[in-house]
Structures are given as C-alpha cells and as structure tokens.
Amino acid sequence: MNQPPTPTPPSSAREGSLDAPTRHPLDWKNPAFWDQSALEKEMERVFDLCHGCRRCVSLCQSFPTLFDLVDESTTMEVDGVAKADYAKVVDQCYLCDLCYQTKCPYIPPHEWNIDFPHLMLRAKAVHFKAHGAPMSVKLLSSTTTVGSLASIPVVVEAVNWGNRQPALRGVMEKTLGVHRDAQVPAYHSPTALKKLKQDDSGEGAVAAGPTRGKVAIFVTCYGNHNHPQMVEDLVAVLRHNDIPVKLIRQNQCCGMPKLELGDLDSVDDYKQRNMPPMSAAVNDGWDIIAPIPSCVLMFKQELPLMYPDDAQVLAIRRAIFDPFEYLMHRQTAGLLRNDFRNELGKVAWQAACHQRVQNIGPKTRQVLELVPGTQVTTIERCSGHDGTYGVKKATYEYARKIAKPVENRVKQAEAQHFTSDCVMAGAHIAHGLNDGTTAEHPVTLLRKAYGI
To answer: Which of 48, 96, 176, 378 could form a disulfide with 78 if both were Cys (CB 3.0 to 4.6 A apart)?
Structure first.
C-alpha cells in the first residue's frame, strides 16, 4: 500500500497581513524621528512598496499624487521622483487612517511594517518643526481659541452673518485660505457648556459590560461652539436611559487639528491641560463619551501611541467610548430603553472614517435599527472633509471629488434622513448635494425616535 506523501513544512514567509494588526508607538521623543535624511529614506521605501501595490488609490488624493509622480518620472519608479516632491504626497494626507485600517496588507506585524498615516504624520511634524506654518493655517487649527472668540454674544451674529456674505468670503479666501464656496460652521451663543449647567451626582449608576454606568461628556470644541444641540441631544438620550451625566467643564481641544498639522508641541500642551479634569473624572468612577469620532480616536489611539507609558493617558483610553458603542453595551446588558415613540423610516448613514478605525463595528447602525420601522443604508466611504482639508482653498476641490461617491449613494438611498456621526462630514456632504438635504447627528435622530 502506498503511503501518503509527507506534508511539506509551511513556509515562514506569508503574503499579506494574516495576523491581527498592531500599531507601534509614535517615537517622537527619539532624535532619529526628526532626522530629515532618515525620514526621506523611509518614505522612499514605503512609497516604493505602495507603488507596487496601489490598492489604496481610491481612498484619498495622496495615492493618486504619488502614483502620478512615479508614472511621470524618467524611470517610472520611485527612485525617479525628486525628494522635494514627496511633500506633495504628504500635503494630501489628512490622517483618516483608512489605508492602515481597511486596505493595506503590509501593516505590522508584517515584516514590511508599513504605517502610511504615521509616516505622513512624521513628515508633517518634521516640516512643521523646521518651517512652521502660515498664521492662517495655525489659526484654522486653533479651534478652541477661534470658537471662544466667535461665540461671544455680540460677536457671534457678526461672524455668522459674515460667513454668509460672498464678498467677505472672498476676503476670507485671500487672507485665511478658506475656499469661498466651502461650507463653514455657524457659531452659537450660549455654548453647550453654558446651556447645560446642571450636572448629575452620579448616584444610581448601573454598570454594563466595560462601562460603569455614569458618563462625563468631553463636549469637544465643535460640540461646544458650533453644535450645542448635538450635546443637548446626547445628554437627553443618556438621562432617558437612567445614566447619570456631567460635563467636563475645564477642557481644551483634543489636539486632532494640531496633530494633522504636525504641531506635536501643541498636541502635548493640550494633553497636559486636558489630563487633570479627565483623569479626575475617571478616578471618580465616570466613563467618558465625546460626540465627535475624531476626538474619541485622539484619546483612544493617537495620544496612547504618543505616550505609551503614561498611566493617565492609558486610563482614559480604557474609559472613553463612542456614544453608540456605549449605548450598545447597555443594550447587550438589557438596560437600554426601547420605548420608542416615533419611526425613523429610511436613514442614509455615512460611517465616519475616525469612527470606523476605532474597530468597534457599526454600532450607530445597530442602535438606530432598534427603532421600529427604521431601515439604515450604510455608506462606508470617506467624505473628504476631515477638519480643515474640506474648507481650504488648496484642497477644497479634491475634498469635493472624494465626497462625490458618498453624495451619489445618499441620492440613491432616497432616505427620509441623512446622518453621519461626524457632523462636519455630514455638513460637507449635504452641501455637495445642494438639494435641501440637511445632515442630522445620529443621536439627534435617536432623541426624535424616543420623542423626548
């Protein structure tokens, strides 16, 4: 009788990333991080691997820019691209993180060790340290300062009026580099922190899963100055579900706009000022929720990667949640109230990039689908907005191009509601639709469904 052949030992070399992805800390305290020649060498290595793969070409403008540079070079390889032109690729990256989280097969622990977003972040940081940034760019990324000034009671009406005037928008385009056609947010007075004056004591909290049952809200710059209604709706929904709520009242920007600029010193400054009140809340048994995905991601991922040994940062990472992630923990524990009074019908939901890369799953859709008579169409494409990228004159047209597939999907959905957890992305998409569609935050829809 013939014996079966002896199995060939498996090769240790494997194509693609077959293991769970990991993320290396951002080694920004190491002098080598700031070395220009070492940076360019690493960029050439990664660009060459990206050129040979090209899976990410549809995600943003960084990859088409890179591949055009390669294809138009004399060698049609990365070695034919001038190092000075690397900045053209960097300028188009707005750190959405989708290439790392959804497309690239060569992320760590793969031996090629590609982390494209953090390589672009390093390039931005090295450039910022060497050359700084125009005052207009620094101002646009100073969201707390701008919001505080623009929300002064007398000033707020003038700011909102000016943002609607074509002539003044032309001046803004020339001085601040904000495209005259870009959708810019309105400012509000009073702010969310001033409107929501009553904090709960925390008594009666009931834990669910990893949550402790009482919530301290990091209201975010946008939630405080531009969209206080979103924060009010979140508070109403949480309290309707018997969850004690308080607001973190001494806070700075989470730091994401400065991170996208490469201004790591400002990120560090914001971190130092945010840690005491946030840590105090966590130490007192409160969970933290922020209504903007980018802010949640900053505390869940970016700050822990910048400060991997900081106990306060790591404690906050464990304690902070996306709003709908939090509500699904309540639902799983049988604690979420399902006394919905109103159907929502068809809902078109754009899954925000900085929510997707938290790897929590489509929690917003899952919660909204608990509402009877509600059907959610999920759109997993980037809006192209991402902070200042979607309003700057230099990148506005690219942002509109990236948003176009999302706009088409919203039209095809023929839904009663259009929503995105990122209110900036939602407004950007609705602006491109130009048909009267308005973007509603999902927590606003949930409040409508509860009828509260």
So the answer is: 48
Say if residue 360's pLDDT is above 70.
Answer: yes
For residue 344, is it within any domain?
A: yes
Q: What is the CATH number of the domain that holds 383?
A: 3.40.50.1860
Average pLDDT over residues 105-131: 93
Domain boundary (264, 293, 328) is at 328
Instruction: State whether 245 and 309 are in the same domain.
Output: yes
Q: Which residues contact 179 (CB under 8 A, 6 or more apart)?
A: 173, 391, 392, 393, 396
Mapped onto helix, strand or coil, the DSSP state of residue 234 is helix
Q: Which two tokens stand for residue 13?
A: 């070399």
The answer to whether 122 and 257 have CB atoms below 8 angstroms apart is no
pLDDT in tens, 387-421: 788 888 888 888 999 899 999 999 999 999 999 99
Query: What's the confidence (pLDDT) of residue 15?
Result: 54
**Residue 360 has what DSSP assignment?**
-
Q: In the predicted model, what is the mean pLDDT of the chain?
A: 88
User: What percent of the chain lies above the pLDDT cut of 70?
Assistant: 91
- Which one-letter DSSP state was computed for residue 8? P
Find where tokens 């900036």 sit: 424
pLDDT of residue 298: 94
Q: Give the number of other CB atoms < 10 A from CB of residue 5.
A: 6
> Is 129:64 a contact under the CB 8 Å cutoff?
no
In whole angstroms, what separates CA 156 from the centre of its chain? 26
Q: In whole angstroms, give the CA distance from residue 420 to residue 425.
A: 7
What Å distances lie between residue 130 and 25, 28, 120, CA to CA? Answer: 23, 15, 15
Domain residues for 280?
192-328
Rounded to whole angstroms, the Cα distance separating 68 from 58 reads 13
Identify which of 324, 290, 297 has the alpha carbon closest to the alpha carbon of residue 219.
Answer: 290
